[in-house]
Amino acid sequence: MTVKNxxxxxxxxxxxxxxxxxxxxxxxxxxxxxxxxxxxxxxVHLREPGFSYKETVLSGTxxxxxxxxxxxxxxxxxxxxxxxxxxxxxxxxxISRDAVINVHPYAAITVGQKGEQLVRFxxxxxxxxxxxxxxxxxxxxxxxxxxxxxxxxxxxxxxxCEENSxxxxxxxxxxxxxxxxxxKGICSESEWVPIERDLRLAKETGCKYHVCHISxxxxxxxxxxxxADGVDxxxxxxxxxxxxxxxxxxxxxxxxxxxxxxxxxxxxxLIEGIKDGTIDMIATDHAPHSEEEKSKGLSKSAFGxxxxxxxxxxxxxxxxxxGIITLEKxxxxxxxxxxxxxxxxxxxxxxxxxxxxxxxDTEKFLSxxxxxxxxxxxxxxxxxxxxxxxxxxxxxx
Length: 397
Prior knowledge:
Elements lengths: L1 E9 L2 E8 L12 E5 L1 E6 L12 H10 L2 E6 L10 H14 L3 E4 L34 H13 L3 E4 L12 E2 L2 H6 L3 E2 L2 H17 L2 E4 L5 H12 L4 E5 L1 H5 L20 H13 L4 E2 L14 H4 L10 H10 L6 H16 L5 E12 L18 E11 L2 E5 L2
Parallel strand pairs: 1-3, 4-5, 5-6, 7-10, 8-9, 10-11, 11-12
Antiparallel strand pairs: 1-2, 3-13, 13-14, 14-15
Helix pairs in contact: 3-5, 5-6, 6-8
């Protein structure tokens, strides 16, 4: 089947041309067909091995394919932690057996992600990069040594930036909503203070450095200045930080993640960072939990929400259709930039009907996780199929 005048991403722009559906795709009720280079998410929690009741490699990669992704980087907060070649191999074996798309695992920075002893970096060179995501490296000396080791191997340090001494039991942003509803807040300093430290260390060591899920205006400004100063730094933010502010919170675990949704001033600063290139990419921080773990309100629920099946429609609806950025810019943020920074080759396409309006229905998710702040939201964009190396990995029913 050939579609006339589809919009196909070619180079740095979309070109109108005829497009033929691969065998196995018979859907015809689209009205605005767009062909994208498949998306790449550098921040995904697949939960296996160790926590397969939350997510598995199979369920997580199926969900990613439905979201238009053919490449994802899997975070190391697993059991066992990928802090040795043997432990990393356990994860690689599961990926080889079950993944429907490409999965690029991180190795931990410290043994057991305990922040006490560095891993043997040279034994973990087949990891995409090094991260203790879920925990911040508290010791400056340890982080400096980690950067030196990573640089020697040509690898990147990917940092969850969080200063434990500043958390004080908080679980949402220390802002207006927390004050009005008597919640314990997480201050912005707990994020930007370690970013400030790490940027100084990255400049000192020359290490390639990437900051996970930034959420504060101070983080944006620090990274903007560091880039201007020649530091080899990139960063990501996630869709929920670009759409919501803390006054949008409700008393439900599906609005609880770490870092938390911040103030409107922070949200606007993140958007400016997206527009001027300070923020290089949009990642999901897809972090599934069981229904029980997310049913205990803001104070008691586990940190983390899912987002890999909704990221593109959310960003298209809230950033592109509103005129904040172009569709080409969104492709850079979700495909081109993450692939370039992490050295992940183009590997497929994803085809969407951008005129199709959907309602986020968690019961239809392919992920085991159901907790998302976008539940019930009306969005534009429906994935028709995703193709990896000539093989269909997702086709709309």
